[in-house]
Known about the structure:
By secondary structure, this protein is an alpha/beta fold. It has two domains: 2-216, Rossmann fold (3-Layer(aba) Sandwich), CATH 3.40.50; 232-347, Rossmann fold (3-Layer(aba) Sandwich). It is built from nine helices and 13 strands. The protein has a seven-stranded mixed sheet, with helices on both faces. It has a four-stranded parallel sheet with strand order 10-11-12-13, with helices on both faces. Helix 4 (144-156) links the parallel strand 6 and strand 7. The longest helix is centred in the first third of the chain and has 19 residues, at 106-124. Aspartic acid binds next to loops.
Amino acid sequence: MASNPNSSDEIPHILVLGTGGTIAGLASHPEALADYRSGEVGIQTLLDRVKEGIPPSVKLKAQQIANIDSSDMSEELLTQIGNAVKESLVNPLVKGVVITHGTDTIEETGLFLSSVCGKLAQNLGKRVVLTGAMLPANAPMPDGPQNLLDAIRWSSTALENCPGGVFAVFAGKVCLARDLAKRHTTALNAPLMDSQTSPIGLINPSWLSGVKAAQAALGEDLPIPQGSWPWVEIATSHAGCKKQAIEVLIKSGLHGLVLAGTGLGGVHQSWVGPLQEAQKAGIALVRASRAGAGAVVDVKDGLICELAGSLTAPKARIALQLALNAANEGSDKSKSLTWQDFFARIAVLPEYG
Ligand code: ASP
């Protein structure tokens, strides 16, 4: 529990959850920034380093959920993060939630949280804000401290007309967390798609209306898997694909497969036969694209499967896992819904930006 003057359990506060990443990383030497370990510094220390920038009216509570390199993110940890965020949102003392996270898989956690508690956050008018850094905490000019301050500001500022929801903040810009997609190995704004962001200090009205439309179209939150998650893998189509690769996957016992197709989303012809067999065997198939931006279309390559819209393959994988889990769980209200219905709830939202 935090011990600085900005912290409190008993009064309204912003909860800051630390999960690790480069923001909490340390380089072996300030001149060798690529040689570093993620998740070395605790969340309270990161907050102590920025305390001068936090308005006295904003009270914080820190909680270390994990301190890992996000490339090692596990489904168990996602469940833990999701449960912690949901619990905090319904706590009247928690006014907003900030999560520090590694950038490598932040898009997956962003899509996950948007899908399991985005509606709840919106209904309660609270913001959940993900952030991280591209430079380790002991870099000569680290980007983490400003990102953390911006995330605290975005989670705690009552902006007229701006709905609650799950957001992300990097390099002075804010976006919906479901729009995160790491597109660069080193750039300071690597996880953001520029067209879907707004400068945090000067909110762009067309971005805000896009956010509102996307939020208005959000369906009910999906349940968080509490036990083992459905097993879903990603298969990337490429020159020289061999059908044996798909045959091996089918025999492995997985429940679903996301196809990172080429261009509009098509897969190599040598995969079509085995993929049709996979569908007959009950494996859920989703079509995404490896292109990096834009939505997939229903290409005529012989396969009929669900479309991931503009979700990247890693995000489509999380969406498919949540959809399969929701369909298996079959709460009374949703008994007649299929995994395809749940998947569409995540993948089919208005495009903007
Ligand atoms: N490998 C780091 C992580 O995802 C990268 C980062 O945080 O930027 O934890």
